[in-house]
């Protein structure tokens, strides 16, 4: 052209790529400044903030603090940011009233055992093998009572069998009456008992601790035990010649 027709357009440099992040609709001359669109979360406070993004795509997720360790006791499946609060799993019995309660446990493992009170001393006559809490009531035979023995039960019902010392220093077994053929019946009994096959002078009834409870002298052949409490007793039978025989008596 050699004649100006006022059609001149000034150069406007900029990004003229309409798909670019910084596309400039007023530019008519590309200046190589175009920046590609990078979609992502551009909220710097969001959990998934993307510092390389330049275009928000509504994907931002709020920060949720908590324990993110799936093996921890207090794992929080909704948390996306670990806050250092994770606690290790500690298994144990969490029932406060249980015998094996574990105050440090946070996860019950079904191991709780109920408290069973009883004598836990295995040398005691009333030792209870099932007991896990000592009730401080154990029947121990005194060392000086050399002839006494335990009845043998291990379920807490055992008692001390009181045996006497004979003149020669030996021990009189309380089952001696039966071995001599002496009969005590009925046994167990609620009120009256009879003794046969022996001409006896006295019948003495003792508690298992050795306390004399009843002395019966010559009578009509029957002994009234109705006043005794239910339990096990030692019966000492003394015949006309002074011989003594022992047996167990059970009062209903």
Could you say which structural class the secondary elements and strand pairing correspond to? Answer: mainly beta
Q: Compute the number of strand runs.
A: 21
Order of helices and strands: EEEEEEEEEEEEEEHEEEEEEE
Outline type? rod-shaped
Give the termini distance in whole angstroms: 139 Å
**Which parts are unreliable, with pLDDT below 50 for 5 consecutive residues or more?**
none
Query: How much helix is in the residues?
Result: under 10%
Gyration radius, to the nearest Å? 48 Å
* Proportion of beta-strand residues: 25-35%
What is the number of helical segments per DSSP (H or I, 4+ residues)?
1
Q: Would you tell me the overall average pLDDT? A: 89
Largest sheet: 4 strands, antiparallel
Instruction: Name the strands of the widest sheet in spatial order.
Output: 18-17-20-21
Write structural notes for this entry.
This protein has 252 residues and is an all-beta fold. Helices cover 2% and strands 27% of the residues. It contains one helix and 21 strands. It has one helix at 176-179; strands at residues 13-14, 29-30, 39-40, 55-56, 65-66, 81-82, 91-92, 107-108, 117-118, 133-134, 149-150, 160-161, 164-165, 171-172, 183-185, 192-196, 200-206, 212-216, 222-224, 231-239, 244-251. The strands form nine sheets. It has a four-stranded antiparallel sheet. A three-stranded antiparallel sheet has the order 15-16-19, with no helix packed on it. Strand 13 (164-165) and strand 14 form a beta hairpin. The longest helix has 4 residues, at 176-179. 12% of the residues are buried. The model has no long low-confidence stretch (mean pLDDT 89).
